[in-house]
Amino acid sequence: MTPDAIFLIATYGLVPFWLLLVVLPRWSGTQFLVHSALLPLIFGCLYTYYLAVASFGGGQPEGASFGTLAGVMIFFQMPEAALAGWLHYLLFDLFIGAWEARDAQRRGMSHWLVIPCLVFTWLAGPLGLLLYIVLRAVSGKGGWRLQPADTPA
Fold first, then answer.
1. pTM (predicted TM-score)
2. Which residues, 6+ apart, have CB-to-CB distance to 18 below 8 Å?
């Protein structure tokens, strides 16, 4: 399968998982599909494969490296490297969104307030996490601590 095909399958394949987090966060299917190790295992394997191909498969452009911004930009010119980076973003954003949903449930936060945070986490990763942390702080449901609700200080 081509990197383009994997890109499309991964990108659009995660939409149902995000919709489950937004629409049915407490459903047992959401718990199984989104909060299990299934997606991290799949995406972790894909990521590892494409990162290895990009890093060790030969054909790296001159100057590709992780030591400078220019080197990273050159590295990500390779489709396999760009796909590995995209898979990384997709998985980590979903992982953070799933944590936000679980954390909000444990803290008794209104899911309606969490939905915008989830949408921003889906579309802009760190911005959504920032919004969720601010929401926790201003709502008095956890403040700046990131431990689970039932963890002592």
1. 0.90
2. 94, 97, 118, 122
